[in-house]
Amino acid sequence: MGLDENQRVVGATPVGTEDRASASKAVRDMFTSIAPRYDLLNHILSLNIDRLWWWRTARQFDEILKRPGMKVLDLCCGTGDMTFALNRRAGPSTTIFGADFSHAMIERASQKGSATNLRWIEADALSLPFSDARFDLLTSAFGFRNLADYDAGLREIVRVLTPGGQCAILDFGEPGGWIGHAYRIYFKKILPTIGTLLSGVRGPYAYLPASVERFPAPAEMLERMRQAGFREATWTPYTFGVAGLYRGFK
Ligand SMILES: C[S@@+](CC[C@H](N)C(=O)[O-])C[C@H]1O[C@@H](n2cnc3c(N)ncnc32)[C@H](O)[C@@H]1O
User: Fold this and answer.
1) Pairing between β-strand 243-249 and β-strand 161-172 as defined by DSSP bridges
2) Is there an atom of ligand 1 within 6 Å of 121 CB?
3) 198 part of a folded domain
């Protein structure tokens, strides 16, 4: 990749990284370092609302999940909670793949559940080891924001979806008004302190609010989705916009 092209890339940039390769490596190292306590921290820091968000997302896709022979990919699956939320609603002949580039995360996911229709794969979202048009539904919960190149990530999602296939990206947002004010205090001050104390690792919980701040606002993200090839791109806020679900059809 030439320098000019590199400079135009929009994606996660943890402190100290200046290109796609170093950003990806820093993100992978960061999640690997918190994998052992990731679930506990997630539930504590989100006050357990994360479970509601995964359930709410999975519920949107009942029709696909129950159709015979469907293939679903949960990208950046971490320890698999979104994957399991999908699997609980899936029909018997639906296959669900959970993919993540952190070995430690995938290992924990596979220890939590190994139903016969679940497949766990160590893979980079920017270069997926799947042929074109393989999946009817692709989800990603709180993972997409961490990609080192959002447009490349969207293009890869489009590539692996079947024509008419659906994409669902659940991620944090930045609410406005007094809720936004309270949320920012929690997210920028309280959460990094508790996260660092409980995980014993300093970087990741300072990176989290910084990455949310850098993530494109809904209007821009929807435009990027359209440019990547999605139609009917929409965003639905969850919990006053603290999180939200991007959807689109290939
Ligand atoms: C915040 S966690 C979310 C995990 C899970 N989806 C959830 O909702 O709890 C983000 C995950 O994205 C993974 N990730 C980040 N960039 C990735 C990439 N380029 N390819 C694959 N996984 C990636 C990280 O390893 C991490 O497990």
Assistant:
1) antiparallel
2) no
3) no
pLDDT for 3 equals 34
Q: Is 194 exposed, middle or buried, given 0-12, 13-18 or 19+ CB atoms closer than 10 A? A: middle
| C-beta of residue 171 within 8 angstroms of C-beta of residue 33 | no
The distance of Cα 221 from the centroid of its chain, to the nearest Å, equals 14
In short, whether 172's Cβ falls inside 6 Å of ligand 1 is no
Residue 170 CA: which ligand 1 atom is closest?
8
Confidence (pLDDT) at 29: 95
Domain count of the fold of the chain: 1
102 Cβ closer than 6 Å to some ligand 1 atom: yes
| Residue whose CA is at the smallest distance from ligand 1 atom 10 | 143
Q: Which of 18, 8, 12, 54 is nearest to 30 (CA)?
A: 12
Our mutation pick for probing the ligand 1 site, out of 9, 31, 140, counting the most ligand atoms within 8 A of Cβ, is 31
CA of residue 178 to ligand 1 center, whole Å: 30
SS3 at position 102: coil
Only one residue has tokens 């692709």, namely 138
Span of 63-67, 122-126, 189-193 with lowest mean pLDDT: 189-193
**Looking at the predicted structure, is the pLDDT value of residue 2 above 60?**
no
In which domain, by residue range, is 79 found? 3-34+49-173+216-249
Domain membership flag for residue 9: yes
CATH code of the domain covering residue 13? 3.40.50.150
